[in-house]
Amino acid sequence: MPEIKRCSWGDTDDELSRKYHDEEWGKFNLDEKYLYEMLVLESFQSGLSWATILYKRENFRHAFADFDVEKVSKFTDADFERLMNDAGIIRNKLKINAAINNAQVLSNWHRNGNCFSTFLCEFIPNPIIHHFDSESDVPAKNELSAKISKEMKKQGFKFVGPTTIYSFLQAVGLINDHIEKCSFKY
Ligand SMILES: [Zn+2]
């Protein structure tokens, strides 16, 4: 059997991180609900480790109505308080506000017949596959993520800086940044 090689962050005994690397990260998935989930998780990740978020992922799922955009878009002040008191997630006022706000933006889009996936594909019609030899070559952001970030802010999204958006694009497979030798690149 050929030896399995991984990006170094996925080459770990931490099962959640390894499984996420092997089965999810970089895999093209533009399901509307999944896009919202990853946008929320990536915005909460800002300043923290991704492993921290993965360990709290099920708590986030529970706290944010299974990442149902319509349901979250109708969250009330009481829901906001509930989230601020939920020790299972990251209790950050700005991030919680942004997650609810972003569901409202997406809900409006859906009502008007627009969707997140179409918006993203206007910038990235086909997944971008980078061929980096080393993880030190993988950028934290680029011109494209800056452009998408700028347009999303214009559309009313919050907490969507170029770095968060770059990570988000990697997560949903619009940018494939598994390093060249990684067995999970394709
Ligand atoms: Zn990899």
Automatic annotation (TrEMBL):
Keyword flag Zinc: yes
One matching Pfam family: Adenine_glyco
Keywords, ordered alphabetically: Metal-binding, Zinc
Annotated residues for binding of Zn(2+): 7, 21, 178, 182
One GO term (biological process): base-excision repair
Gene3D superfamilies tied to this protein: Hypothetical protein, domain 2 (1.10.340.30)
GO molecular function ontology, one term from the record: metal ion binding
Full protein name: DNA-3-methyladenine glycosylase I
Source organism (scientific name): Lactobacillus hamsteri DSM 5661 = JCM 6256
